[in-house]
């Protein structure tokens, strides 16, 4: 039995509320169980300097957690004076994942910055950030198109992410913190709406795993991401 009482293949309940901030070109609040992330997308007229003259655009991301997003207070990284390695790794993952669903030539020489701020954490914050970040990105691109600033839609597919792992010797979908902290194997799976892989992160946390177990986790992830994509579509309808 999972701590939450969910079935092995049952993801957490997902809700996505759009237009939650008045200033950002795209925004949403995504709730994946008790993990809540505010995602905003900002349009910038210029691409980074390394892309000058290429005709290519860029999508990047920043990630952070509020001090009481977790069970005990975490110091703000701004107060410490530097980002942790974990934060840098996660925001690079979010940026890579979102770029996988973008035609950068259609975007033109401009940048979209997606900010993902964790309000409440209960496992899977990077996956929720990617799933919600894509919705904020979609809304920002819609504004570009409505203003006639781009000719064709640069978004080629949905992008969403889910965690799966081996907990209590069994493959389970969408780990919350209670499972993630005890999992023998932990994996993050980022896929497109058509089921193509953007990235897979898998590691043995307490035990090695077999090829068959990896395939089981991949099957769970594909089904879980399909549900997340459906939630994205419903939020944008």
Automatic annotation (TrEMBL):
Example GO molecular function: tRNA nucleotidyltransferase activity
Keywords tagged on the record: Nucleotidyltransferase, RNA-binding, rRNA processing, Transferase, tRNA processing, tRNA-binding
EC number assigned by the record: 2.7.7.56
Reaction(s) catalysed (UniProt annotation): tRNA(n+1) + phosphate = tRNA(n) + a ribonucleoside 5'-diphosphate
Keyword field contains Nucleotidyltransferase: yes
One Pfam match: RNase_PH
BP term (GO), one: rRNA 3'-end processing
Annotated binding of phosphate, by residue: 86, 124-126
Coiled-coil region(s): none
Boundaries of every Exoribonuclease phosphorolytic domain copy: 11-140, 159-223
InterPro entries xrefs: ExoRNase_PH_dom1, ExoRNase_PH_dom2, ExoRNase_PH_dom2_sf, PNPase/RNase_PH_dom_sf, Ribosomal_Su5_D2-typ_SF, RNase_PH, RNase_PH_bac-type, RNase_PH_CS
Function as written in the Swiss-Prot or TrEMBL entry: Phosphorolytic 3'-5' exoribonuclease that plays an important role in tRNA 3'-end maturation. Removes nucleotide residues following the 3'-CCA terminus of tRNAs; can also add nucleotides to the ends of RNA molecules by using nucleoside diphosphates as substrates, but this may not be physiologically important. Probably plays a role in initiation of 16S rRNA degradation (leading to ribosome degradation) during starvation.
Family membership noted in the UniProt record: Belongs to the RNase PH family.
Subunit structure: Homohexameric ring arranged as a trimer of dimers.
This protein's name: Ribonuclease PH
Species for this entry: Paenirhodobacter enshiensis
Organism placement in taxonomy: Bacteria, Pseudomonadati, Pseudomonadota, Alphaproteobacteria, Rhodobacterales
